[in-house]
Amino acid sequence: MSESAILETPLHALHVELGARMAPFAGYDMPIQYPDGVLAEHLHTRSHAGLFDVSHMGQALLEGADHASLAAFLETVCPADLVNLAPGRQRYTQLLNESGGIVDDLMVTRPPDAAGELRLVVNASRKAVDFALLRERLPKGVRLTPLDEAALIALQGPLSAATLVRLAPDERLEAAAFMSARPARVAGFETFVSRSGYTGEDGYEISLPAAQAEMFARVLLTQPGVAPIGLGARDSLRLEAGLCLYGHELDETVDPVEAALNWSIQKRRRVEGGFPGAERVRSALAEGPKRRRVGLRPDGRAPAREGTEILSSDGAPIGVVTSGGFGPSVGAPIAMGFVQRAYAAVGTPVRLVVRGKPLSARVVALPFRPHAYYRG
Amino acid sequence: MSQVRYTKDHEYIRIEGAEGVVGISEHAQQQLGDVVFAEAPPVGKMLKAGDPAAVVESVKAASDVFAPASGEVIAVNSEVEATPGLINEDALGRGWLFRIKLSDAAELAKLMNEAAYADYLKTLD
């Protein structure tokens, strides 16, 4: 973390104008909620479309002679198969430390038309750590350039595709597959659009120059059914979608198998290894991890917050809640946490110690709400 | 004629003879946002002024509700436990949390009346 003054995104003035309640998050003064409130914003995103300012996240370009050399470099720090990442596709992966712990989770995108270029999106709170780690290891001929002058706007929810079709009828973004990405001209703005997000809904993440971000956001907000959504609802949406948040589910002690991110380690990498902590990850894959991220549903109505102790049904400590609250679309309290492997099976009864009382709960499958991604 | 007193922690107590009805203030419900969980203390519990007595939670956070005055809990609002959003709709009315039998009416003098509470709110950011 930098010790400098709090930062603002290119949409800061717009948030204030829209009546947002602002608060510091990862070094940025960010909108937590707008006047409608977290509950209404959450439900609006699930039923219509929400506009999220995620410009605080770290965007960067990795450039080199060709895709093979960039992918080979990133594979020395990430467990995903990036060599076989096709043009116009993106992949979710993690930066790992030497013991296989997660330094950060990130999206890696291969633009369709640029031969020696990958786009990275990392967490705001981890930018400095990530970029330092990458720079230390950059091979000759590979450059890392943070895109400090780029904004990132997410449009999420069932009306997202129709909204972009209206603004960019020729781009056929409604036909773009989940986890694909390409440049697109939207409402006259040159942008880079991926079909991805952090809500479990269909939607897009749109990168464009900071100087144009406010005008672009205003155009989106004039569209029917599009409302601004703050970080409060972003968190409840991602929790219902069973998605990890760095600093909560993920940190440098947690490996990707414990975090139930096995799906993000493709077969070739499992076989070949060659990433930091590969031994730990491969043994966790073969024998099961010591602890595992699970979904939790309290039987009652009391939410179990982050830090809540998890007990087995006979009272033994078996884990801790890493994110917890109320799921507005589920209509009940929901949580994620880590439990010892023996207690990770769906249906296992557990207790959550809330204000000193062990409340009954069950291990449930993630996500809490089915994903609505566009798979073509 | 009932009168309402407030604490610095934004609880209210509506005094009805020898009893008091406790909830969170209009300001508190606005700050908290959508309330999704409310838990009142058990009937029969003896509370001292300042004791954590009830809990209200929004989507994001949990807040303790402290007893504005000492006394025995003689009723709880089961309607608000089933429909916590009543606190947002009508904090001083249907959003009440619990009722106590006051054990020391002199304590009420330490609390703020409507006008003093309004002045107090102006001093907060």
Give me the CATH architecture of chain B, please. Beta Barrel
The share of residues in helices of chain A is 10-25%
Q: Can you list the strand order of the major beta sheet of chain B?
A: 1-2-3-9-8-5
CATH architecture of one domain in chain A: 2-Layer Sandwich
Biggest interface goes to: A-B, 19 and 13 residues
Q: In the CATH hierarchy, what is the class of one domain in chain A?
A: Alpha Beta
How are strands sequenced across the largest beta sheet of chain A? 10-11-12-9-3-13
- The poorly predicted ranges of chain A are none
Enter the CATH topology name of chain B: OB fold (Dihydrolipoamide Acetyltransferase, E2P)
Beta-strand content estimate of chain B:
35-45%
Oligomeric state of shown chains: heterodimer
Count of alpha and pi helical runs of chain B: 4
The tally of strands of chain A reads 19
Shape of chain A: globular
Major beta sheet summary of chain B:
6 strands, antiparallel
CATH-assigned homologous superfamily of chain B: RNA polymerase II/Efflux pump adaptor protein, barrel-sandwich hybrid domain
Low-confidence stretches of chain B: none
Q: What number is the mean pLDDT of chain B? A: 95
Structural class of the secondary structure composition of chain B? alpha+beta
* Integer-rounded radius of gyration of chain B: 13 Å
Summarize the structure.
Chain A is 22% helix and 33% strand. Chain A is of the alpha+beta class. The A-B interface holds A 33, 37-40, 42, 232-233, 235-236, 301-303, 305, 325-326, 328, 333, 355 and B 33-34, 36-37, 39, 55, 57-62, 81.
